[in-house]
Amino acid sequence: MNRRMVVYRIGQIMMLEAVLLILPLLVSLLYGETKCLLSFCAAIGTALLLGVIPMIFMKPRDNVMFAREGFTIVSFAWILLSLVGALPFFFTREIPNYIDAFFETVSGFTTTGASLVPDVEAMSKGILFWRSFTHWIGGMGILVLMMAIIPTDSGRSMHIMRAEMPGPVVGKLVPKLRETAKILYLIYFALTLIETLLLLAGGMPLYDSVIHALGTAGTGGYGIKGDSIGGYNPYLQWVIAVFMVIFGVNFNLYYLALMKKFKAAVKNTELWIFGTMILVSTVIISINIFPVYGNVHDSVRNSFFQVTSIMSTTGYSTADFNVWPSMSRNILFILMFIGGCAGSTAGGLKISRLLIMFKSIVNDIRQQRHPRSVVKVKIDGKALDDTTIRRVSTYFVLYCLLMVLVFLLISFEPFDFETNLTATVSCFNNVGPGLGAVGPAGNYGGYSDFSTLVLSFAMLLGRLEIFPILLAFNPTNWVNKNK
């Protein structure tokens, strides 16, 4: 383990967080929020201190990076980012319990959107901005952002991208990894800006438009109203719903479209499955909730919004789906597991993993009938290697085991089975709202400090897709001589 390099890189990330904290500080300055100004200054000072010290005293002798270094940097960076990012909430006393503030920040960076704030409308503008800005930072990944703007001497930074970007396979869009990171963030920023302008065109105030564009882009779902998106007009709800779909799609496809490779983008199997599942789920739920709303437009609009919100793991809501019929609630619960496409900002298992597992099962059944046949699993005409298939299977087993463990650890809480189960599923899959007490009209404030920490780490496990966290905390990862 090249420990000096790991600590040095984490120091760089803390310096970047200090820079990013300047933006909410400026928002607080604009709105004259003195208490928030001081809190953000204290958080920036803490981040600078944690960044400067390792960068001065822990400069590595070499920048060689292997998988374990990359995974360790990502894991500890995300934890430290959340610990420092929680300070503004705590210093302003808008979230007086630091563990609760940590949960809120982890939920932001992991783009989960699960909140324990009982009255979000009472929070200050600067804090609300920071709360939603964490979604945007965490959506594409702060380490990917660092690679885009900070030159690196290491030729193996792909290990960082592999650890932070969601999906079973991560590849370069162009030969240079730094250029790939730049392209991803340019697409990300452009789509966020377009959504902001469309929201402004629909009459949404500038502050609200920026906040909701940041939340949609990161598929996080932190809102600034008690009823989430329910109080805005239908046009604005449709815009946000469409962009939740857009940000749930693999960003590589947008790059292909920009390169005028439309045929390759449109033929993507994962994209077709994603669209089909949204369409079918919307139709079924629309029919099921029609008696609740009494007209087609409201039924379709609320159905489409909630389906896209849950499947993209954004978590915004236009209605309290807790009161919807059982069939609709059950469909939404299933969609919590599935999530969006690989290479998007969405959480969940990812459609590509489910597709790989399904095709592997079909191949195994065929081989039972024809033992001598050799059939490769193919996605979009490309054969997958055995290592990728094995990793997907391993991930699914760990995913199930860890989710059961989280559920058991919080099961002593005084909530019903539905609440604890959906809280576990929602946090692990970075969705946000669940059912029962943690539904769209509720929050996670009733959980004890212990369960709050458990759910916080469930969100980190889900966002970083298990392996980086497990490898970083594996004692054997640290036994080699320090370089």
How does the helix and strand content classify structurally?
Answer: mainly alpha
Total number of helices: 22
Helix content: 55-70%
Number of strands: 2
- Taking Cα atoms only, what radius of gyration do you get, to the nearest Å? 22 Å
β-strand amount: under 5%
Strand order of the largest sheet: 1-2
Ends: how far apart? 7 Å
In N-to-C order, the SSE pattern is HHHHHHHHHHHHHHHHHHEEHHHH
Main β-sheet: number of strands, strand sense, barrel status? 2 strands, antiparallel
Round the mean pLDDT to the nearest integer and report it. 88
List key phrases describing it:
1% strand; 483 residues; two-stranded antiparallel ribbon
If you had to describe this structure to a student in words, what would you say it looks like?
The chain has 483 residues and is mostly helical. It has a domain at 365-478. The protein has 22 helices and 2 strands. It has helices at residues 3-20, 22-30, 34-57, 67-85, 87-91, 98-109, 125-140, 142-149, 158-164, 177-201, 206-217, 234-247, 251-258, 262-266, 269-293, 296-311, 326-338, 351-369, 386-409, 417-428, 449-463, 467-472, and strands at 378-379, 382-383. Strands 1-2 form a two-stranded antiparallel ribbon. A hairpin with a 2-residue loop joins strand 1 and strand 2 (382-383). The longest helix is centred in the middle third of the chain and has 25 residues, at 177-201. It is globular. The mean pLDDT is 88.
